[in-house]
Structures are given as C-alpha cells and as structure tokens.
Amino acid sequence: MRKIMILPAAHLRTATATAALAAGMALAAPAYAQDSEMKKGGTLHVAIETDFEGGDPVESGAAGATDQTVLMTIEEPLLGWNHETGQPEPLLATEWSANDDGTVWTFKLREGVKYHDGSDFTSEDVAHHFNRILDPENKSRSRNYISVVDEVVAVDDYTVEFHLKHAWAALLPWLSATQYVSMIPSSEQVEAGEQQRKPIGTGPFKLVEWRSGDRLVMEKNPDYWNADEINLDKIEFRILPDTQTRFASLQSGEVDVIWSDRGPTIIQAQKDPDLVTLVSEGAGGATINLNGKPGKQLANDNLRFAVAHAWNQAAVTKISWQDTRPNIEHPLGGNVECGDVNYRDFDIAKAKEYIQAYRDETGDQDPIKLVMIHTTTPRGRELGEIYQQTARAAGIELELQPVDQTTLVKRTYGGDFDLTGWRIGDAPDIGPQLYSYTRPDTSYNLTGFDDDQLTELGDKMRTATTLEERMDLQCQMVARMNERARILYRGGGRYYAFTKTYVKNVPEPYGGAVNVTRAWLDQ
C-alpha cells in the first residue's frame, strides 16, 4: 500500500530522511525475503506483452512495464529503494548528501563495479548518461522528468555531483526508479551507437540473444558486484502479446511468470492453486488522451467537455477489468486525499448539453465525428468499443482505428489523433509527469494544455520545500486538469503478476513491472 511520508524541509538535506512519497514505481533493490534453502541455477521463463523497446535511453520512448521488467536485469540506477521504510538504499551509489540549500547533491559511487564488457563503472558514465538526456538537442522523452537538474558533474572517478536549478524533493525517488531516465548504461556502448540493440549495463544479467517479436535471453553476469544474491543461470523473456496465450502458457508450465491486467485472467488465476498472485497498489493509471491542440476539433472546450461526460470509466473497470482495478478521480494514488478534484462524471444528459453549446457557439450542425486510436490487443479493442457505444448515445460518432503499440506511441507523440489510449505511469512521485503533461513547452504535453493556472501551479509544485506543500499543489493541479478535460481515467494503479508456486523471491509488480532478478526455483 502506498505510504505518504511528510518530512520537515531540513530533512530533505539528509541521506536517510529523503523526500519520498511512496514505493510506487518499480524501484531497484526491493527488500526480498530470505530463505535458508534458497537454490542456485536454472532458467526462469517470463512472458511479456510486447517486445523490448531497446537499451538506449534517448532512442527509446517511454518505458512501459515490459521495458522496465527487461531493463532491470541489464542495468541499474544509482539508488535502491526499501519499500517497507519508504527510504532510498545504497546501490551503485553508497553515500549521498546535499549542500545547505539542497541545490547540489554529492554521490559517492561503489568502487569495483564492472560493466558486462569488463569496463569500469565510474562517475563519467553517470554524468554522460544524465547530461545526454538533459541536452535539448537530443530530444529525449525523459528530459522533462528531470529538467530541474541543471547538469551532472564527474568530480573524480567515484564522486559525482547533481547541480539543481532549485531544491527538488523528488530527486532521490527518481534516482531510484527503473525508467530509462534513471538506469545507467555503458557510455562507451552508447557512443558506439550499439546500446539500443546490444545494451550493456552493470546489472546481474547480460543479454545474449534477442529475436525480435519472439524472445530475449539473459545469462547470469559472473562478474556482478553482488553476485551472491543472484540465483538463476538464465532468464528467458517470451514475447506473447495475447493475454489468454500468456495465461495458458503459465498454466501449462511453458512459462513461469506473467503480467496481466485483464479481469477474466486475473480472477481465474487467483483461483488456481498452482499459481501465486502478486498484487500491488500504486499511483498512476490507465488514461485516454484528448487532443486539444490548436487546429484540432477537440480544442473546443464545450466539445471536449461533452466527450469527457460521455466517458464511462465504471463500465470499463467492470467489463474489461471485472473490478480488479479501482475507479479513480486523480492519478496520485489511493492513499492521497485531495477532496473535490472537479471530476467529470459519466452523464449523457450533460454531454448532450455541452454538444448543444458547441453547436450554438460554432454554428456547426454537421454530425460530430472523431477518431480514436487504440492498440490491437483485446484490452484496446474492448476499450474502443465501450467508448464508441457511450459516445454514440451522446450524439458523437467515434471511429475506431486499431494500431500496433509502436504506431500508437508514434502517433500520440506526433499529435496524430483525436483520442488515444495512454497511461500515467506509477511513480514514487507523480509530480514530474504532471508538470510535463501540463507545461506548454514540453514534448510530453501530448494533449495541448496551455493554461496559465496550471503552469503557475506546476512551478510552485516543483519548488516546494516540503512534501506536504508539494502534495497539496499536486492535488490542485489534478483538479484543474480534470476541469479542462484533456485526460480521462480508465482505472487506477493496481497491478497484477502471477507465478508458478515453485518460483520464489519475486516481489510485487510495482507499476506493472516484475522484478525477477533475485528469483530462484524450488524444483
């Protein structure tokens, strides 16, 4: 369960009392249960939904659950995270501290760490990674998340400094995350242009085979700095896009671990005595983006409000997820109480009123036609069909265009959509995503937010010196976002994974990502 930790401002400058909101995103080095009979060896077979995006943090897009699941085996961030205490722990960095005003953070790195190719991990790799993301010329999609960082400086081989534009409460949680922005690749491999298809990291496993659309094979890294904790010889990721196929493969023993967000599969798996259910509550959630950028039909407020009131979130969570996910009014997590956040309820009568207001305003009496893109997965098709029915009831013709995941991401970033399925990723702090979504000058402003009130709230939130103030401002931001109706919710952050009973030492799937790096097989 997500824990909210409110800390005095002075504590933001210490290594142990960090600015942590929660153990939400798939974070590195969770606390694993120890077992006196832990066994070594064997191959773990893990079914994933989509192919791996790749290992280069600039060339790759946003890291979904699949990407993080794979990436955790290859690369590592600076910090680990203790989910029980909500505090950072040493990983690639062993010590960290900040100056008096919290604008310069110094990290001491673990010595003797090697990359998979035998080269040394040093502060130059850290500085190269973050400065490359921060360089606007590289147009990294991760840049907006850490744009508070001005530069990263390698002081000596094992000391690195993060220079911030202002004190930032979210730094340590984001340095613990398993997104592309936080996982540190080999700078030599990046500069050679090989990191995307042949990723090299400091992680416990190294990639030895990648058959696109089929599988990725990882072998244990014998030179891993913490090799005693690694039990498996190999991990094989099987790419199985169809949920039912993944589940059938788990039941048959063809694979040992799966991730799922399909209600029927979840309910069936929970009843199977040969399976273990892993579930976590987090922030974020599945969304629908409405493209309100200038020149788009949904730039009109009245039409956009009509579309929002024609959306039936409860129908999706009941039909598609069979109530295995909660309905939400904001993406901050179930333990965050914001009060009234201006959520636009499903209301066909109100949707029709806004359509009439749109016609009165524009004089447009033609049928209202919009296009929704969605993935070719059963989840995507079901989402589109449900929305198509409720939109029709309000007087809106919704054309459905199924596309593959890569095309959906490309079209969404390119603004080539009216409506699109998307998500706000689970994270220890949703603030950087809220900021990026709503700031007019960011590449992640996918829906065309251009609102002075939101911009001001975002600036205040980023410079807040206490987490209490930061969370209050995030609540104000989501209330304004709901009012402007550019992002709709289709289920909150509850995530499921399933393993065979003989698979041990797999933690809960934070953000949907499954950390199998310390697993072992009792067979």
Summary of the model, kept short:
Helices cover 28% and strands 23% of the residues. With 523 residues, the chain is of the alpha+beta class. The chain has two domains: 268 residues, Periplasmic binding protein-like II (D-Maltodextrin-Binding Protein, domain 2); 214 residues, Dipeptide-binding Protein, Domain 3 (Dipeptide-binding Protein, domain 3).
Count of DSSP E strands?
Answer: 18
The average pLDDT value, as a whole number, equals 90
What's the number of structural domains?
A: 2
Rg over CA atoms: 23 Å
CATH topology of the largest domain: D-Maltodextrin-Binding Protein, domain 2
CATH architecture of the largest domain: 3-Layer(aba) Sandwich
**Strand order, biggest sheet?**
8-9-10-1-11-16-12-15-13-14
How helical, in percent, are the residues? 25-40%
Task: List the uncertain runs.
Answer: 1-27, 29-34
* Assembly of the depicted chains: single chain
Q: What structural category do the secondary elements indicate?
A: alpha+beta
The DSSP helix count reads 14
Question: What is the percentage of strand-forming residues?
Answer: 15-25%
Largest sheet: 10 strands, mixed
Look at the structure and give the CATH class of the largest domain: Alpha Beta
CATH H level, superfamily name of the largest domain = Periplasmic binding protein-like II
Shape: globular
End-to-end CA span: 31 Å
